[in-house]
């Protein structure tokens, strides 16, 4: 069994390399979070440590918090098993430390993994590294200080560099070397020592920020009216803007735990694990089976959903039989399908029975 651990090695240059090891994606399991706290405490205490670089073993920074914990919480309703590290570890221990930290990111930095990188004082990434805060797609919000958006769309390192999330993109073979030098440059003030939580230079005036939040709330109501995590995310962002980043992190920690127990989170986490399970079915997915080509599909019901499905199938050159027991609904369904300029009746049978 692969050991889940965090190690630290101090080089002759005084830079401590803290390495996360939890294959396959270096998930931030509870022991990893505890290990990070232990190694950072040691690094702050040691006189031979000048600066720190955080990296993931095996070419992956971190896939984020171990969401297997969520399944346990959903079964028991007990949130005490959720870590409370956003303030204690990510802010007080790492971001507010007297020694600078640089995240050396490769492969992926997702969820809590990206939040770990964000609390460092600089981020150096290898090309094509995947960056994302996917928590909203699981019915929650980022819980380690990363609540900054209402979308979970992934980006790559190059786009992150343009957005200011990544400080430099360098070849993989130079990643650790550049990160070490960058950490020492921060220490010597040749590079800026930035604590992201306290930055306000991108916010504009309070009234401007409030206008943006108002528009975002209206958009969230229109596009995701039954997704409470989106409005909750905006609540936390507003708290941080109005009362300061530290206050925002405190609210984020409380709200993120509450959302884990929501029905939306329970459903989305179930879907996440169901998708993973169905992709690995013994004697099915591992024996080289190939799906047969679909030539004809019957769609039962010509309502909004049925006609939409039929339209998508027709546009994929699949023969469709649309069955509807109500002639009025059938005619509406036909009109909806024919409303697409790309769809015609050829290859489709409409049945009322």
TrEMBL record:
Gene3D superfamilies from the UniProt entry: 2-enoyl-CoA Hydratase, Chain A, domain 1, NAD(P)-binding Rossmann-like Domain
Keyword annotations from UniProtKB, A to Z: Isomerase, Lyase, Membrane, Multifunctional enzyme, Transmembrane, Transmembrane helix
Domain 3-hydroxyacyl-CoA dehydrogenase NAD binding: 296-339
Database matches in CDD domains: crotonase-like
UniProt key word Magnesium: no
Residues of the signal peptide: none
Record-linked Pfam families: 3HCDH_N (PF02737), ECH_1 (PF00378)
Protein's UniProt keywords contain Transmembrane helix: yes
GO function terms (MF aspect): isomerase activity; lyase activity
Transmembrane feature ranges: 297-322
Family: Belongs to the enoyl-CoA hydratase/isomerase family.
Protein name stated in the entry: 3-hydroxyacyl-CoA dehydrogenase NAD binding domain-containing protein
Source organism of the structure: Ilex paraguariensis
